[in-house]
Amino acid sequence: MPNRVRVKICGITRLEDARAAVAAGADALGFVLYPPSPRYIAPAAAAALMRALPPFVTPVALFVDPTVEEVRALLALAPHALLQFHGSESDAFCAQFGQPWIKALAVGPETDLEAAIAAHPGAAGLLLDAWHPQLKGGTGDCFDWTRFPRDHGQPLILAGGLAPDNVAEAVRLTRPYAVDVSGGVEAVEADGTVRKGIKDAERIKAFISATTAGVTSR
Predict the structure, then answer these.
(1) Residue 1 within any structural domain of the chain
(2) Among the four 60, 163, 169, 182, which has the fewest Cβ within 10 Å?
């Protein structure tokens, strides 16, 4: 079991949410540069938030099948960003920017995980998320955690349907390098409606605390 599991809070759209995540101990913050997403943030706005982050908190720029020009435009504004690709990008496409990058893999019932992982040898890390026929991440769904590869050579990141009430068990079962959450730490209206793109500072704190509890549990 790792001594520590890193935490990425994804779907950041506001400075106050970025500050809350940093204060709670997040290791990385994700910014969704995919216009169809309800958590989309424009590149200039994302870059401004990235520049506001303190040292040792990693800004992550999330793309879904972008053009080369879109990625280069973001890097011109935020050259220190870690790239994350959520579409059908090849290893060669992801590697051409000269930046560390993460590749997200959608885990469905028929997914050959070993083959999918092997197809991206250049990735700094691989993010395993729940498969959905239309959505590219942010589904709120979990996949079968027993399929998560244990003791893998590459850093593997667990995502998909994580929240303060289940992340400790997820960490205990999968032993990931890191966990990634978006919807599970968002604000909820009185009627139960999730405010996508708006984070809840208390839920972020609870999520990070539960992640730590999962590491220490046996």
Answers:
(1) no
(2) 169
Q: Is residue 114 part of a domain?
A: yes
Q: Residue 124 sits in a domain of what CATH number?
A: 3.20.20.70
What's the predicted TM-score (pTM) here?
Answer: 0.92
Catalytic residues: 10, 129
Full residue range of the structural domain in which residue 162 is found: 6-216
Please report, in tens digits, the pLDDT of each residue of the chain (218 residues total): 567 999 999 999 999 999 999 999 999 999 999 999 999 999 999 999 999 999 999 999 999 999 999 999 999 999 999 999 999 999 999 999 999 999 999 998 878 888 999 999 999 999 999 865 555 555 668 888 988 987 777 899 999 999 999 999 999 999 999 999 999 999 998 888 889 999 999 999 999 999 999 888 65
Six-digit token string for 146: 């027993």
User: Cα 170 to the chain's mean position, in Å?
Assistant: 15
Q: Is residue 66, in this structure, part of any structural domain at all?
A: yes
